[in-house]
Structure formats: structure tokens, C-alpha cells
């Protein structure tokens, strides 16, 4: 696997591959790789001639400085995992490669995506996500972009960014990979103590509870039941939401519309999110 640290060099490699009509798959990450990330690499390998993974812990998307400082970094292990998965190129830029001194900060029109759920609880987060993904897509003009449904709202934000900036790329949203007990894999899980890890599984349990009990009609008591389960496990709940696939809230279910359940909750200062199609 080639490791490339310079933006200019990375662009030149991609451009020459595109000229040779090669299909390029791209998986942007913040590292501390797990099976969720590697499933995206494998999907890209199936559908492209070249697969590029980037590892960049983007400072501009962290609204909480301590979350940024404590974000896990396991680069040696990541390189080994990527090599084993057959990734062709790792783009490993420094902050100045992504944000050079002449970098012009844009503001992206994200509409309500920025004011609901993750947008509401993490002010500025999605602007930071757009900034980095926009820059990465300018450097790596890939054919296919692979994202995880684990970050449901982020997938919608990135689709909106691609539309706004007319990036000629096809977005693929891939299923959430889970631990044996159902906990969604996340780089932040590394930070959980064994006792916290046991409690963290209640996120997926709350979603499964909703999936099992959802009925046409008012959804308020079901949301309360799921919230109670999280609180009983000592989590601090940012939200438990039931929405349609466009993330519009559903207080009342008609029994037909597909329903997405979304949860964000913290165990001490470790914030976890999960979502599931519950109906
Ligand atoms: P991150 O390193 O957390 O920024 O994630 C990089 C990419 O991996 C994003 O598209 C995530 O949605 C995706 N991802 C993270 N966790 C999972 C998971 N458990 N299953 C599938 N994809 C995931």
C-alpha cells in the first residue's frame, strides 16, 4: 500500500489513474479503524480498480475540544489493517496539507439538517464535516465515495454537499457493522471501560425495543420507554427520535411510512450515536 502525505501528490496520482479510465473508490475516515471502516474498504475494492482510504482527524468538526484531544489514534495498527484489507493507497495528510494558509473557509447551506438532531447538539459540526469532505473530494476526485449508515445524518449532509458543490461522484451508503452483542462499532468504543462497554449496548437495545413494539398511532410513549431504558443504564440522553427517511420527525405513525430510530447518548464524556430502520 502506498502512503501519501501530500495533497498535490495525491491529486496527481488520482488524476493519472482517472486518465487511464480507472475507477477510484474513496473511504474517508478519522482512523482508529475497526470492521465498520474495513467493510467500506472491502465494498470499494469490489467495485473499483483502486481504493483510497484517508485518515485525518479533522479539528474543524469537533465542537468539543476534549473530544478532539481524546480522539483515539492507532495509526500503526490502522496501516496494518488497511494492508490486510487490500487498500491501495492511504492518504495521511497533516492539518496544513488540508487547511493551507490560503485556505478559504466556505459556509454550506445545509438547511434544517444543521438545526436538528446532531446538528442541534453539535453546533458547527456539520460545517466542519463539509469543509473537510469538500477539500478531500477536490484532492481525490474519486468515482465512488463510501459512507457508513451508522452516521445517518452525516450521509445526508454529504449528499447535500456533493449537490451544492457539483462533485461528480456516486455516493454509496453501507450498512452499520455491529459487535456480537449489537453495539455499533465506533472508534470511540475504545475509550469505554469494561463496565461502560456493558452499558453502551443499551443504545441498540433501545432501538430494538422500538422496532419490536412500534404500532400505528402516537409514538410518544414508545420514545419515552426507550429513553427510560437509556437513563436506567446511567446514560445522558441527547435525543431519541423517530423520523421518516428524510429525518422529518414523526409523532404519529401511519403504519406504512418507513421509520428511522436515532439515538445519541453519552456515557461519562463518551458520546455515542446509533440508528436503525425500525419499521
Ligand atoms: P469515522 O472514522 O468515524 O469518521 O468514520 C469513517 C466512515 O466510516 C464514515 O462514513 C462512517 O459512517 C463509517 N463507519 C463508522 N462506523 C461504522 C460502522 N460501525 N459500520 C459501518 N460504517 C461505519
Please characterize this protein's 3D structure.
This protein is globular. It is of the alpha/beta class and 279 residues long. It has two domains: 2-174, HUPs (Rossmann fold); 187-277, 2-Layer Sandwich (Pantoate--beta-alanine Ligase, Chain: A,domain 2), CATH 3.30.1300. It contains eleven helices and eleven strands. Strand 10 and strand 11 form a beta hairpin. The mean pLDDT is 98. Helices cover 40% and strands 20% of the residues. The structure holds adenosine monophosphate. Adenosine monophosphate binds next to helix 2 and strand 5.
What would a concise description of this structure say?
Helices cover 40% and strands 20% of the residues. It is α/β, with parallel strands linked by helices. It binds adenosine monophosphate.
